[in-house]
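Quick start: what a row looks like.
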Amino acid sequence: MRLIIKGGHVVCPSNGIDRPMDLIVENSIIASCGRNDASAGGADRIVDATGMHILPGLMDMHVHLREPGEEYKETIETGTLAAAQGGFTDVACMPNTKLVNDNPAVTAYILEKARQAGHCRVHPVCAITPGLSGKGLSEFGLLAAAGAVAASDDGKSVADAGLMRRALEYAATFNLPVLCHCEDVSLCEGAVMHEGSVSTAMGLAGIPAAAEWVVVERDISLARLTGARIHICHVSTRQSVEAIRRAKAAGVPVTAETAPHYFTITHRAVAGYNTFAKVNPPLREQADVDAVIQGLADGTIDAIATDHAPHSPIEKAVEFDLAAFGMVGLETAVPLALALVHKKALNLMQLAEKMSLNPRKILNIEAPGIRPGAPADLTILDIKRSFKINPAIFASKSKNTPFGGMELTGAVAVTIFGGRVIFESL
């Protein structure tokens, strides 16, 4: 299979390329890169990328694929197809499935199902504690050998600080980063949205910002104590951003991610008891949104991840108090992130760092970039195309997004995985 991509502008942070280039792909490998290097002779397929930008395949380091156990919400097949349509060639899936990924058999199952689907590469994240129980430690060595790339009890915070310390020390022996869901449940038991003026007006129990940042501070302290790497998931508060900034300045081995909804909308999106805007951590105030954007701009926050959390109407078309937390994000992440580029909060090189290079670096996954001999995993963006979010055409089984109908500028034009065009909207 010989694929030619002509006329595009390559943006590749791993080797600092930011210029027009033509690419020739032979089977699953980039054979050559260069301006006017792509003759049409012998091509099985030509992609005209004129006016578009070519990035190394994007990676979402925080998704929920729901399989095994909750296939009515999402499967590895539908979730990875949604990833491809969103421009992602790699995803890391969280362990809080209904058979928790706390043993090598579940890890192997996930990898095999992803291989069969063939839409993108899946990197399983294993559980810190068996069954996400908060007690004891999973067998990190066996799980890493089976293919786990990190450990997390995502959806739950490890409340026992002593156990969390042991988890960091144990994971470090296998070079596994620990992905931290930071939430002090004693501060938010029974609460359903951000604690503030909107929750008061709506008569809903609120989750204070402190429920996140006090655990961020604790986990940073444990990283300082142990020297082990931690990664703070779905940062939503200005206090968390500042704590991470201070820790990095002090040399603590900490990285962080945020999700597009935390830099796009505020707790006011919950108005009308909109369950699609019910997430955990919750949507915060404008000052938090501004701090998250600043954290992305100055490098405090390393990555943009979706926290893709599919739910069926069974969990969302109910009273707000009873509705599940979470929204889908794989198919909306790129246009929402590109809004930051259009606002000049980030440039395309920074966006590529946060959505392609850095997630792989954090998870110890090779990021070969765009060069001869590298795998042909590519995302082509049309950053000028008008785009209206339409959940009805999502590949994901679930449609729980508060962004339906939003009009944005910028979209995924083509996703290439292993030298194959998996998705195109040209």
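That is the whole record. The chain has a mean pLDDT of 96. Residues 28 and 419 are 4 Å apart (CA to CA).
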